[in-house]
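[job 0412] stage=complex_fold ligand=adenosine monophosphate status=START
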Amino acid sequence: MGIPLASESRLASLEKRTPTIATLCSHSSLQIFHGARAVGFPTLGISVGPPPKFYDAFPLARPDRFLSVPRAKDLPSAAEKLRAEGAIVIPHGSFVEYVGAQTFADLDVPVFGNRAVLAWESDREKEREWLESAGVLMPRRYENPSEVDGPVIVKYYGAKGGKGFFLAKNREALEGFTPSGPHVIQEYVLGTRYYMHFFYSPLSDRGYRVGHGSLELLGMDRRDEANIDELYKLGAEEELLKAGIRPTFVVTGNVPVILRESLLPSAFDVAARIVERSIELFGGMVGPFCVEGIMTERLEFKVFEVSTRIVAGTNLFISGSPYSDLLEPGLSTGKRIAQEIERGRSEHRLAEILS
Ligand code: AMP
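[job 0412] stage=complex_fold status=DONE, emitting structure tokens
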């Protein structure tokens, strides 16, 4: 409990009729529709403009029906139709970005997960407050450039895909840099990146117990990021800057990874702390979230970001991952979301997982 609830009468009606699983046609929608269908839910694709043709190429993941809106921001105008369909909206990584945080927060349609997480995730200061107070190790933040004693990454607020992030090898390299807007100076962590796909179920009473529910690990990926991933082939940074080439971190794809098995206990510990603190701060995250960080050579995991909904890296595992297969063969995050909704309905506990 503790989530700002969708109205009781609305939840009751979702128990009486079979709800429709709806999401915006983008990001991980194929996986969400595929998973919903596997559990037996009808599906609805919300498209911006006419339905995208690419769904025709994937018949097992094509939504049963489409609802078109002129722009993503016009979603509220479709709220009545969505309610009439008995829709439960599944937010994904692009959803909030396209629809807008305020529009999403105010959307008068039941949404899977706790919308209160938005305020804590979208603001880097609040996110740090959440994670640090949970006892999670994060890259050091420098208040003043004079404190810098190693490589740093300068991040601009709201920069999409790490656009314009500045890397400096040391304090001297930072001194020659004039930031162009609000930013943070962060320790540049040397190590290996992991994007861990967890799922917190407040309904489950078995498995790895956290809070009143349980924590599951469904997969893991690493993001391909242009142009940083290939930049090393061109040589030293000074030379690149002279040539007018600046590093960017625009995600272009994902590759599957696994973690050394001996590191799994600390991965679970970090994720469990994040969940437990979320329960104290805002009633708890529900469903999929991704812990994004860097494992150093000292085997310390430093978290630079938490994404609190389904991330695109889970698309690697539509037919299961080396982790989710140990929960249920072939289990995807999309299917796991649908299972949670089905369980919430059958146990009259939708109030704990929808907002
Ligand atoms: P973010 O916008 O925080 O998700 O960061 C975008 C990308 O920048 C990440 O996917 C990483 O590749 C890289 N990155 C972010 N923070 C750090 C850090 N503290 N040290 C090294 N790389 C980082």
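The longest helix spans residues 264-282.
[job 0412] exit 0
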